Amino acid sequence: MDGVSMTTLSKQGIIKRLVEDGNYDGYCNSEITDENYPTKDTGVFVYKIIHGSEIGDGCVYRKDVEKKFKELGLRLPTAAEALYIFTKTPRDQWLCAFISGSRGAFIVFEDGGQRNLLLYSGDGDWYADYDFVGVCE
Question: Following CA atoms 77, 4, 112, 52 in sequence, which dihedral angle do they give, to the nearest 10 degrees?
Answer without folding.
Answer: -50
